[in-house]
Structure formats: C-alpha cells, structure tokens
Task: structure prediction
Amino acid sequence: MKNFLFSCFLILLLSSCSISFHGNLHKIEKRQLNPNEIKFIFGNDSNKILFKTQIDLYDNNFSGLLFVKSIKENNKKIVLVTELGIKIFEFEFHDDEFEVHYCLEMLNKKAILKTLEKDLRLILMNNMVSGKAKILEDENNLVYKLKKNKRNNYYHINTKADKLVLIESLSGIFKKVTIELKDYKDDYPEKINILHHNIKLNIKLKLIEI
Amino acid sequence: MKINNKNIVIFSFFILFSFSAISQSSYKTIKDISAFKSKLAEMTKKTNTIESKFIQEKNLSFLSEIIISKGLFYYKKENKIRWQYTEPFDYMIIINNDKIFIKDEDKESKYDMKSNKVFKEINNIIAGCVQGEILNNDKDYKIEYFESSKFYYVKLTPYSKQMREFLSNIEIYFNKVDYSVSILKIFELSGDYTKMEFINKKLNQKIPDEKFSF
Result:
C-alpha cells in the first residue's frame, strides 16, 4: 500500500512536470559575469515597450496591452490594460523587491501574483547577474546558467545571431517555465512566448511599439 | 511697481485665480435639464446608424504615459455595435443583441451576454451612452449636466461599490448641433482615464448587416 501510494505520488509529480537533463550542453567555465555580457531585452536606460498580450489561464483567456517602462537601473514598471482601457494590474520591480500597486480583484491571488512576478522577472532580468554563472555551450548556443531563488535559469544566446532566443527555468531537474524569444527587430524580439509546464498558463507577447 | 517676492506671489495668485475662474465659467450647469433630455431623446430616435472613426487615449498615471489607439465604430439600431481597433493592433468586438463576438488577431471567441456580467455592464455603458438611455438610469448613477459653447457635458458617478472598482465616473460630451456623442471619458479611482474621441461621424448612412455578423 505504501509503495502504491508512493508510485501514485511519483506518477502525479512526473506527469505534471517535464524533466530536463540538458545532456547536450558542455560546460566551458564558471565565473563572475561582466555587467553587459548578457544583452538585456529591457535595458537600464529609460526605454519603454508596448506589447499586445494574450494570457491563457486554464480555460480563461485574457487579452490586453502590456506596457513595460524602465525607470532606472533595476527599476521597471509594468502595466496591463485591456484593449478597451480597463486596467488589470500595475507592478513595480525594484532590485529584488516586487510591489503590486494595483491588481483587479479577480487576479489578486497570492499564487497568481507570485507566478506573474517570477515570469516577468525572468524576462526583465532585474538583478539577474549578481552571482557566478556557469557558462555552457551546444552546437548553436552559448548558455548562461544563473541561480536565482532556488531556481536554475538557463539563458540561451544564439551565437550566430548574438541574440537571446530561449530562457528555461528549472527547479532541480524539473522544467517549470520555457520562454521563447523570436523574430528580432533590431534589438527587440517581436514575439515572446511564456509557457508553463506544471500549470496551464501560457502568455504570448507581441511587440507593437518601442 | 517695485517687484519683490510678495508681489510675485500675489500676482501669480491673481493669474491662477483668473484662469480657474475662466475654466469654471467655460462649463456651466444646464438650467433646463428636461428640455435637453427630450431634445436628446428626439435626436437619438432619429438616429438609426452611426459610422465614425475613433481615437482612444489611455492615460497611465503610474507610468506617466499615454497609449493611443485608433479604429472604426459602427452602430445600428436597435442593439448592434462594431468596435474595431486598427492601429497599432487589430482587435474587434461585435455586439449583436445579446451575443458578443471578439476577434483578437487570429483568435475568435463568442459569448452570451446573459452569462457574462462584465460584458453586460460594458454593453450597457456603451449602448447606453450612444442611445442616451444611460441618462435615464438615475438609480445606478448620480447624474450632473453642464454645457459649454461647443458641448453638452454629462457627468455620471456610479453609486455601486462594485462598479467603482472599475470606474469612478464617466463624462459624455454631446455635440451641440446633432446631439451625437463626441467624447467619452471614463475615469478610474487612481486618476487614470480613457478618452475616446469620435471623429468624421456619419449619421444615418446605410450600414449593411454583414458588418455585425459573425
């Protein structure tokens, strides 16, 4: 009975997560990164970017406009409004702090806010390059493995194009989030797809204005 | 006159005061509200279709930024609305009686208004503003009437707490010539607001039913 329960637990656990071993990656070195070694999508100058956004959370669909504004180094503000102008949330990232200035009651749940914070932090890369990074490579990419809040985050830079093309966030060997960055226009990806592996949450961002 | 700090303060005060007096005097309260309402009802009764361009400005005080979007607006009596954004993104909402259709790029969704409270409320506001019906709803809104040389301006403040989570008040500006809606402003509690300006309005031109089918 004990074994049966354990097997059930294991099946449940494995079925809701994907496992990643990154067998094809070869370690080059482990060292402190230079401040501008990984090109940030949202730089520290006062840039602003507007995305058309679709969020699929289980059977609910939300859509709207996501406005990201970089105020100063490691300080970013993000607002999501519907196309008709109804505000959904206002977040602020300041170093390692996360502040919710406004959130519609429907989404104002601890678990949802935590997930959105983690997802957005992965692409904002606030304070990401603080500790040492493992530098790996495969056939096409240079991969930076950065540890942050018990998660291992892999930033894949396509060596030919010199662009960030993939972010993977893992907890142990379990892949939690995959972010694809595609169709670059100058230094900005026109499409960012955030895909969760253990919950039914997908976020699609499409660049409309820089 | 010797200019010293005191004089500057008094002078600035005077300037500020006179400006605020001007801005207050540009809108005065409508004296004969029932005459305005009956004229509006008469004009909306005559209006069978509206075709217009719109410019939407979303003011985000948190970011000190404005998002501007543009599109086309169609209305056909009794309850058909097509709200189509064309710049800087494609997005369309069609309301046909109690059915709602949303086209978000390649994604299409249909809803029944009866089953969705939020849509029902949004439709009540939009259709209510266009048809002027909202001014009869003094049960849900505190309604105030003003006018300037160009507009009749009506300010609605919802009574319900639930509504005030989305909007603190609505301002509707009616054109003084044809009584059509020229500007719609929706204010949120944070001070952010959405301004929709309707331009190139064409009233009572033929609009095919296909514009509202899905």
